[in-house]
Amino acid sequence: MFRAFFFARSPEQERSRKLIRDVCGMDYLVFCRDRPDTGELLASLLERHWSFMDGYADRLKARGPTLSADGEEHTGSLHIVDLAIPEEVEVFAYREPFYAAGAYADVMIRRWENLLDRSMWDYRTDSDDPMFLVIAHAGAPIAEIADMHRSFAARHLSRTVVYGSMRMPEGGEWAGFAAVLQMPSREDVEKIVADDPVITSSAIAHHEIHRWEMGGRR
């Protein structure tokens, strides 16, 4: 549903995108929350985590940790990745070393529709401003506000690292959307969220904001 809120595509483009998905698989968003006091465990597993992710290097669209407000502590992780079959989703989410060692309290898996048709590596900026992950969980979608939201979102595209619609893994029901924004402060993100006609409508049941940074080998 959220595809219509942004960039309309021709029937030919849609057929091309479907063919690519059928051949290459489907994008998934995997969001994990840390258990409390797992910093030492995570540090001890970091090389194993990187080695695991190396196997998906050419299929990752975004990767990186969520952080505490001061940016000092690891609180979770976000990965967006192209996976071919449901069994591969299970492997990616549950055989990953952090999860396998019990570092995560929970894991959220959603199908992902990349509304900007790009990865985090395509984002270009000279800014040192922090990045923030916004996850908006679906309530009851309202199609009438599509034009208003398209106009609103366009004002922030230069600060948007990734943006996409989420759907449930089975059945494909719309599940909300997620975005990574680069802004001077969390307060700036909160102002954007407060003005967002979708997030403030019944289309969204609740939302969350996390400090985030681009991940990968250091």
Topology of this structure?
Blueprint lengths: L10 H14 L1 E9 L4 H6 L1 H9 L5 E8 L6 E10 L2 H9 L2 H4 L3 E11 L16 E8 L7 H9 L5 E8 L6 E9 L3 H10 L8 E9 L6
Antiparallel strand pairs: 1-3, 1-4, 2-3, 2-8, 4-6, 5-7, 5-8, 6-7
Protein model, in words:
- Strands 1-3-2-8-5-7-6-4 form an eight-stranded antiparallel beta barrel.
- It is globular.
- It has seven helices and eight strands, in the order αβααββααββαββαβ.
- The chain starts with 10 loop residues before the first helix and ends in a 6-residue tail after the last strand.
- By secondary structure, the protein is an alpha+beta fold.
- Strand 2 (60-67) and strand 3 form a beta hairpin.
- Mean pLDDT is 86; it is low at 1-24.
SSE-based structural type? alpha+beta
Which sequence of strands runs across the widest sheet? Answer: 1-3-2-8-5-7-6-4
The geometry reads as globular
Quote the distance from N terminus to C terminus: 37 Å
What would you say about this model in short?
This protein is of the alpha+beta class. It has helices at residues 11-24, 39-44, 46-54, 86-94, 97-100, 146-154, 186-195; strands at residues 26-34, 60-67, 74-83, 104-114, 131-138, 160-167, 174-182, 204-212.
